[in-house]
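Q: I have 239 residues here and want to know how they pack in 3D. Can you give me a structure?
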Amino acid sequence: MTIVTKPLENQLALVTGASRGIGAATAIALGSQGAHVIVTARTAKALEEVEQTIFDAGGSATIAPLDLTENDAIARLGAAIGGRWQALDILVLNAGTLGTLAAVPAIDAKELAAVLTLNVSAQAALIQAFDPMLRRSAAGKVIGVTSSVGRHPRAYWGAYGASKAAFETLLGAYGDEVGEISSIRTMILDPGATRTKMRARAYPGEDPASVKPPEVIADRITALAISGFETGHFERVER
């Protein structure tokens, strides 16, 4: 009898912002290739739906509802996961918030702080919390989801763009720090125009059918998780 194995079998993946959109689709795609996927976001009910979809396809998942911006939430998550599993093989840093699009002189300081807290500070905390588990993986992979405005400033996108630029720098620095002393590899992926709730907020008059579905991005992230990549790799998914 031939036993068919999947390419990510016996690997552990953690996907943030996994209740909908790119995060949910990525969790489902990774699960379909054999990974046990830990899905985290604020909304428990939506995470349960993602978990059930993974189960229905023959995969396995664990939900971890939490707000990444709450004090000690990420440390608690790291301790809980580290207490159950030895290593983390795939970390997809997808969670983020758009904030209000506004001219730079009109940016609300309190809202800017909230955007930077999730898009930058929480990402640093996630890397810190899961660095030990990533180091214990035979080939730890960290994939950060960004936006083109992080590299190409655009009017009214200053706050969000600045947060993504900072996030890219943060993840790139981490990749350089661990690249020669561990098997961890880091990369940045720009999904381009994708049918998400955040996109609908930013472009309210756009026909959703005119842009690609999140499953396209999920398939690419999963392919990269399977094939591997060199630290510093960047790519934009056009279609």
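Q: Anything worth noting?
A: The chain has seven helices and seven strands. Residues 92 and 143 are 5 Å apart (CA to CA).
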